[in-house]
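Appendix B. Worked example

We walk through a single record from start to finish. Start with the input: the chain for 2-hydroxyacid dehydrogenase, Anaerostipes hadrus, length 334.
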Amino acid sequence: MKCVAVGDMMIPSIYFRRELEKSSIIDEFICKSWKENSSKDDFREVIRKIETQGACAFEVEDEITELMKKADVIFVHQCPVSKEVIKEAENLKYILSCRGGVENIDMEAAKEKGVKVINCPAHNAYAVAEYTIGMILNELRNITRSCTALKNGEWREKYQNSETLTELRSQTIGIIGFGTIGRLVIERLKGFHPTILVHDPFADEDKIREEGCKPVTKEELIKRSDVITIHARIKAGDPPIIGKEEFNQMKETAYLINTARAVAVDMKELYHALSEHKIMGAAIDVFPTEPVSKDEPLLKLDNITVTNHQGGATVESYVKAPEMVLDMLKHSLE
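Next comes the structure step. The output line below is what the pipeline stores for this chain.
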């Protein structure tokens, strides 16, 4: 099969080339670059546009699209694959994506033409799962607050949760989303021996029980959990998973963790919940607009841990993604 691979700023073409050279299922390939020299900040904006506007967010250079139209396999990370390309690619059989989502691919056109799309939701799953555990511990145990105080010359003893803080083994953790990342978070939490509730209307409840967790409704999870962490996929335009109603149902001692998508949480309502002490705290890695303005109200609060979208930022998340996707293609062909 003939493959056209397109690298970008996050996964340069050299990583595609390295794996394609070892592949036994790709006979011929060409590697190209798309926005490979962008800065991180500029590329964040590229990703944001793709996630909100889809495959038509950017026009890709003619040189690349013409090569795509002659390929059996199109292999990308963030580079858009448009309706036009898919329609005119006479021999196209597969579109491979190193992303977890498929917003950069015109899925309707692919479906109409019978082109199989293979994406990679697990490419940064281990990284995000580890980061989630870190965010939970950091927020509950006041690690960043203690560090900041000590660096400022203060031996701080009193925190908002000083009178209510218990160990994870005494807590109920609510997992929203039983996909790849949600399951990995559960796997890592088990060593702390908490009670784990799971809400995912698309998951097999027996599978949830097999993991030692209890499947529950969203309302029950919101009301019972001491820590709520979001790992469900959500698109721009969908209603937030956690909004005013959910914050009003949460315990005053509860914490919200979001290492998934910014649109999963109504950020204005999060600010009100934290500033009015309706909930104990939060840890947030993703924001609707990135980079975040220094005037963002959440940054002024003491009961929130904030980081700049670092959950998936490990070497393995990107370097190994092309290899993972080609393995998935190989299994698909067997």
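Two observations about the output. The chain has two domains: 2-123+315-333, 125-306. Residues 2-123+315-333 form a domain with the Rossmann fold fold (CATH 3.40.50.720).
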